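Problem statement: downstream parser choked on a complex file, so we are re-checking the raw output for the uridine 5'-triphosphate run. The parser issue turned out to be on our end (a line-ending mismatch), but while we're here, posting the original submission so the record is complete.
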Amino acid sequence: MKVRKAIVPAAGWGTRFLPVTKVIPKELLPVLNKPAIHYGIEELIASGIEHIIIVITRGKHLLEDYFSRSFELEHALREKSLYEALSYLSPVCDPDCICYVHQAEQLGLGHAILTAKHLIGEEPFVVLLPDDIVFSEVPLTKQLLDIYQEYHANVLAIEEVPEHRISDYGVIEPLQMTERLYRVLDLIEKPRSEYAPSRLGIVGRYVLLPEIFSALEETLPGKGGEIQLTDALKLLLPNQPILGYRFEGRRHDVGTPLGLLKASLSLALESVDTAEQLHQFIDLSMRQRQLRKGPINH
Ligand code: UTP
C-alpha cells in the first residue's frame, strides 16, 4: 500500500527557545534562509507524500500563515519586477496538501499524533519531527518508505549517538539484520547511559502502521508526565514487528539554539554565496581568540 499521508507534530512549547517562542513558533526560526519546518515539508514532498497534517496549538497560527499564499505580496513584487524576491515565495507544495489539527493541551508527542487519528484512518503513515533536519542524497523519509515497501512493518530512523547524549533519545535494543537494518527487540525512552541497551537512538522520522493509534490510546503518561510515542511502540512490539533503519545522511538537531546555529553555519559553509566570507570571519575570530589566550606552549 502506498504511504500517502504524514503527520508533523508542531504543537510543543519550544521552551529551549524562550523567550522568542512566546510569540514565534520555533518551527519558523530560520536555518540559514528558510524556516526549520520548510526543510521537513520539502523532504516529505520529495518522498512522494501527498497529504501533510501539521499538529498546531493556540498561538501557532503563524505556521498556517507561512504555508498559505500571500497574493498581495506576490502582486506587489510582480508590479515592481522583483522576480528574484518573488521566486522565494514559490510554495513548497500546493497549499491544499497541508491541513492543520489543533492539540488543545500539550500532553506529549504521542498525544499530538493521536490528535490526527481521524485524518489518517486505516493507512500506514509517516511522522516527521521538524526539529531534525537531514541532508542526504535520498530524502530520509524516502529511505524509510523503501524499507516499509519491502517489509510492511513499522520503521524508525535510527542513528548511533555519543554515550553522553544517549539520555536525550529513545533507544532501541537491536538485532542486526543487514548492514543498516535492525529488528527492534525493545525500546527505552531517554535511559541513563548505564541502562541503555545500545547506542542506537531514534531520530525524528517514523513510518507507522495504523495500529499505533490503539497503542497510543492505552499509553499512560511516562517520562515528563507526557504520552510518549516510544512507550506506545513498546506496547505494540509483542504484536507487530518494528524495524530500525540506520539512515544515510547528515542530521542536524535544530531543537536547541546551538543546534540551530550549527545547522545554519553548516549550510552557509557549503553555499557559494556565503562560504568565502564566513570562512574569513571564522579564521579572524579564531586568530583573535588565540591572541587573547596567548601563544601556545608545546
Ligand atoms: P519536544 O520534546 O522537542 O518539545 O517535542 P518541544 O515543546 O517542541 O520543545 P522544548 O523541549 O520545550 O524545547 C518533540 C516534538 O513533538 C511536538 C513538538 O512540537 C516537537 O515537534 N510536540 C510535543 C507536540 O506536538 N505536542 C506536545 O504536546 C509535545
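For whoever reads this later: The chain has a mean pLDDT of 94.
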